[in-house]
Specification:
By secondary structure, the protein is an alpha/beta fold. Helix content is 37%, strand content 18%.
Amino acid sequence: MRMPPGRLEPLSDLRILAVEDHEIARQLIVAILSAFGAEPDFAECGEEAMELASAIRYDVALLDLGLPDMDGEALASRLVREAGMRAAAFVAVTGLKRPTVLPAPFGAWVEKPYTVRDLHDAILTARGHSAAYGVA
């Protein structure tokens, strides 16, 4: 994988939950995040994400909005309410166009297809968003 010019901040200190139902998209996420020292946990659907998040405290959630069992926005709300992820940074990873105003609790939005820098920057943006609201 070709890295963008300039050094990008490592992500190795972050616990990342990635919720993605497509295998190739999961492989891409692993390839990008491992380049920055991160080892994400994966869920293929909303219910699996809820189980993981109930057992592990995540710093970042990368959520595909088009999951087979529930809408990604609904999953984000459930993760905050029911799985204690109020302090996590949420990134929407989707083929949908970015809305003018991001739905809560998303702090960043990445449109597929995306670049290494797109995903990396979205994670940092979402972390800054959650910190700005006093929840990081």
